[in-house]
Amino acid sequence: MNGTHLSRRRLLGLGGALGATIALPNLLTACGGSSSASAGSGKLTFWSDITGTPNQQYFTDKVIGAFHKAHPDISVKTTFYKGSDLQQQIRTALQARTGPDIVRAPSVSQTIPFANAHLLADLTPYSKKWGWDKVVSQWAREAFTIDGKLYALPMRVDTMMVYTNKTLFDSKGWTTPQNRSDLESWAAEAAGHGITPFGSSSVDWAAAGEWLMTLFWNNFSGPDAVYQALTGQIQFTDPTFVDAVTLLKSYFDKGWIAGGPSKYFSVPSAEIGASLGKGTTATIIQGEWYMSNIGQFFGSAAGNDSDWDWFVMPPLSSDVKAGSMPVGFGGSYAVNSASKQQDDAAQFLNWFYSDKSAALQRMADVPATYDIAIDFTPSEIPSNADPRTTRLLTSVNQAISSGNYGYVTWTWWPPKTDTMVFQNLEQVLTGKTTPAEYCQQIADSFTAEFKAGAAPKLMKRA
Amino acid sequence: MFPTDARVLGPAQADDPAPRRPDRWRPKDWHVTAHVILIVLAAVAIGPMLVMVFNAFKSNAQIGANPLTPPTSLSLHNFTQAWHDGNYATTMRNSILLVGGSVLGTCTIASLAAYALSHLKVPGGGGVIAYLILASTMPVQLFLVPLFSMWTHLGLVDSRLGLLIIYWATEAPFATLLLRSFLIKVPRDFVEAARIDGASELTIVRRVIVPLAWPGVMTVGLIVALTTWNEFFWAMTFIHDPGKRPISISFLSFQDQYSTNWGLTSAAALFVMVPILLLFTIMQRHFVAGLTSGGLK
Amino acid sequence: MTRGAPISPPRRFRSAKAVRTITGWAFLAPLLGLNLVVVFGPSVATAYYSLTDWSGIGPAHWVGLANYTRALKDPAVHQALVHNLIWFVLFLSVPMIVGMLAAHLINRVHRFRTLYRALFFIPYITASVVNAAVWKMLLSPDSGIGHLLGTDFAWLGDTRTSLYAVNVVVDWHWWGFLAVIFFAAMQGVEPQLYEAATLDGANTWRQFWHVTLPGIRPTMIFIVLMTIIWSLKAFDYIFIMTHGGPADSSQVVSTLMYDQAFSQFSAGYAAALGMSMTIVVAIVLVAYRLIQKRGWEE
What we know:
The complex is a heterotrimer of chains A (462), B (297) and C (298).
Chain A: H1 2-31, E1 43-48, H2 53-70, E2 75-80, H3 83-95, E3 102-105, H4 108-116, H5 124-130, H6 138-143, E4 145-146, E5 149-150, E6 153-154, E7 157-158, E8 160-165, H7 166-172, H8 180-192, E9 196-199, H9 208-221, H10 223-230, H11 239-253, H12 261-264, H13 269-278, E10 281-287, E11 308-311, E12 325-329, E13 332-335, H14 342-354, H15 356-365, H16 387-401, E14 405-407, H17 409-412, H18 415-429, H19 435-451
Parallel strand pairs in A: 1-2, 9-10, 12-14
Antiparallel strand pairs in A: 3-13, 4-5, 6-13, 7-12, 8-10, 8-11
Chain B: H1 6-9, H2 27-56, H3 60-65, H4 77-85, H5 88-119, H6 125-135, H7 144-153, H8 160-183, H9 188-196, H10 201-212, H11 214-230, H12 233-238, H13 247-257, H14 262-293
Helix pairs in contact in B: 2-14, 4-14, 5-8, 5-11, 5-13, 8-11, 9-10, 11-14, 13-14
Chain C: H1 16-49, H2 66-73, H3 75-108, H4 113-125, H5 128-138, H6 145-148, H7 162-187, H8 191-199, H9 204-215, H10 217-233, H11 236-241, H12 253-262, H13 267-293
Helix pairs in contact in C: 1-13, 2-13, 3-7, 3-10, 4-7, 10-13, 12-13
């Protein structure tokens, strides 16, 4: 470390004042300077990636508006960004020791580097002060705890689902597949009708491949195998993981998923949504967040009179119990360590997480956007919720409480390996590498990151 | 938009100043063939744009049924909604301010520098030119973090001036190189005559050089205007206040919000396209005159 | 701030020439000053990071030239360079040939010149994000041109065609600009040369080859130089349309660099790739200067 600093100083000498300004923020972070006590102005900033005018309106009125009523002395100013841009913006800003007070941080694996670089404030004192251990589910708090310090709170509980065109299913007399052979005979039949069984697209979200791998590893290899691999007990080269990849590839090669790899890489997700509405695609494999978008492809606005529904992916092997759902987090909320209003920002988080009935009301009002990890019973879900939303909340609740849950890659895999899961999958789908080679790459990367301590703390098996 | 029937194009005029060619074709045939090829090329150039214009007038359902055909009715609904939802009134004003600022600033900086490199015989001038080309190849994507840190310390983040300074710095090198090639052609005698009259070098730039190289300055100004208008990478990183965002960001966030609605997105795209298209159409003669009189020749 | 006073007597250390030099540097100062802050400063930081294992976040450790030796051996870099080369050949030839043809024809006809130029120019002045969006739709296997013609081939989604599909879009956006540039250059060719060639009995093709082309050679060499540089920097359309995929089939050095910096947490390695690109450009520039000195341009 010392050597590094010396050479950097020498460089600064050469670069003069200009260089000093450049490297200063990094020096600060390197020294671990958490900048401030909290004598703030009560004016907080927040950058969000909520899309769609109605969704943004709801956030402004029902979330921020309600907070302003509860805390008239604190104001929150929200700016909306495109999802993929937001993470870039936040990273750049945090490293420059500026940016929003309340940070919409990525999921666990990517939050660890932020925390290690001291870009996020330690929330442990606030957690103790306000008793967050009684509010936020234990598994969620543990995931964001690094070296005994809490750095973030989960923004949204993520899982994978299969969305269907209900009208199409009803008209064909199709029922929800219960196991792999059900699923495959149904898919073959749908394909025989010229209907794409599973819609999927990586055009607008390059990481879409990891949604598929999450589903196939958890529903074929099974959560126990995944847990063992993520805790270093077995390797990702184990046949069970290789076979899951082989199975996924075979679905692609049959044209069942997206109509084949090249369409998966080139047809935008909006078009796939439209064809789900039209009934030329039977289902879409997506995360629970898609629930807030899917409505636009159905009904009079979309020019059809169909409706949608969803089911849990059935077990693809005997190692998996029915109803098993992979869980994890879609991002997190944290406090900027460079903020001058850390207390006020924490106050917002406390308000957001502590009022259980308000939180449940948000979950009921907007599908799959405000599903924070808090403990609740099904009867507490407000009755105005869409039945499909209620079913999602209860299914996930059930999976977690009964220990029948798996692990989504974007939360529980270490960051580089996580990127590799979807980037290298492209090579498999295009036939440039074999599933075995792919799993070897994953295993090598994971082993290195696991040794370096970059793997998140895993949600335990029951 | 353009005649598609070769017959209406007519033969070459009788007072055609072009040199006669002893081809086996008569000039009339030759011109017809030339126009046919040019029309095909024009169709290739604007065909995709026409699809976009068509779609801007169609509803989403109509696009779904016929994605590439002309609209059957002229609904302006997409335009009114896109204008309102994209907040184009604000972002267009911001972009006009940014374009004005970057054109004025870049042209001033580039005029001074190009004059120094072409008429003042600065020792090391060749090195400066090589540096400018090299500097413009540095990958800007990697500059984000250091530049953002610096701008934060200087209080230039979320400020139009801060963004303008970046535009001046990134656009001036190419502008200088281009302008220099125009200024080389300004005869030394004019400059010397002005010096003997006691004019300062600054006055020479203002009163002699810029007027004489005016087509070149216009050309550089237009290229700078175009670059600034279409720029989004820096704007996205350095401007966070929605009230200060330029038009390109308006389109990007619009595209994100309405990715499923091609009609709306097309209308939004036209708002970005049409102003700069108008500017270029009005200025076209100057632009070509500028290129002809020097520079890239 | 600078008053060149040509008639004033030369002072002790100042001749008129010295004054001019000082004025010259003063006139260069705004340009170089801004460049120093916005480009050179961050470049120094980039050069430094290229010698470290910086992840993009947090502290960096000195690793010497390890990133550069890794780049030399990295198959992903080799593949990206091959793509850059393909890109360069296509980007240089296709728009140049079409642009030249168009310019030559406009130069020869006498009606609608302005209209043609304006139409050819439209793709060039349209923002890359807009062009990319339009072409993504046109190339979509389920609703684009191909679908209309009865094929559902996914041009952007097939590893064999993705690079070429994006290149077509970039060529399409670029040739009109070259047409106008070449047209402007052709305007400067002396008409007497054509007349002389006609008297010598040269046909259109020979006139083009022996009069037009030599007449616009400086423009062409400049365009070739800029094309080499732009081919190395090729980024925006690829990034917007394919992100370098699928399976790296359209990955070029700049998109690979971006991926390393922002997805792979290897900002130090990415910086080394960026610096290497600049070094290549420097070599190209030296070659260009040599060509210039040999008098090719004149």
